[in-house]
Amino acid sequence: MSFTTWLGLLAICCLGAMSPGPSLAMVVRHTLGGSRLHGIVCAWAHSIGIGAYALVTLLGLAVVLKTSPLLFNGIALIGALYLAWIGIQALRSKGGMQQKLQAGTKTSLWVAARDGLAISIFNPKILLFFLALFSQFVLAAETITGQTLIVLTPLIVDGLWYTFIAIVLSHSSILPKLRKKALWIDRLSGVVLIALALRVIITVL
């Protein structure tokens, strides 16, 4: 995998992690309702689930590509449309992340880890996102090194982003600033996801 290709993967993984959703809500809940440590434990448990999805998706797409290139292109097109839909939803959002910044109830570290893992494993939208995302990178992952990068990049990015969220939210003076930037995060995510969708469609067609 070339460095440029990896940078593209890194950028999309960052935006995917930053997009507001149930994963963010769960980390916020355990951070504000528990502690910084609760939020960090929840974050890395969630990232393990992300890594598992990344590995399963990569291996599955690799098999499809070898056995049926036409089916692979169909998956890529459907994935591109899904990415475009996510992007449009993000552009229309009025600050989805801001709605997630609410406190929860305090729980144990075990519960925080369990919830973090569960919210990633049992969220079908994550699988759809990886199917859409990896369809353009699987060709660049012909070696073990490339495959490892494709799996570890979303795992590490996800863990680091939600760790950052946990650290930021543990300082009440920073929370209002994050809320003010929520709308811009949504807008940026929308533009990049739509651009990625167009790129996939042009490549396949």
TrEMBL record:
- A Pfam family per the record: LysE
The places in or outside the cell where this protein is found are: Cell membrane
**Which superkingdom, per the lineage?**
Bacteria
Q: Provide the membrane topology annotation.
A: Multi-pass membrane protein
Major place of residence: membrane
The membrane-spanning stretches of this chain are 6-28, 40-64, 70-91, 126-144, 150-170, 182-202
Recite the UniProt keywords alphabetically. Cell membrane, Membrane, Transmembrane, Transmembrane helix
InterPro entries from the UniProt entry: LeuE-type (IPR001123)
Cross-referenced PANTHER family, in alphabetical order? AMINO ACID EFFLUX PERMEASE RHTB FAMILY, ARGININE EXPORTER PROTEIN ARGO
Q: What is this protein called?
A: LysE family translocator
Q: Origin organism of this chain?
A: Shewanella aestuarii
Organism phylogeny:
Bacteria, Pseudomonadati, Pseudomonadota, Gammaproteobacteria, Alteromonadales
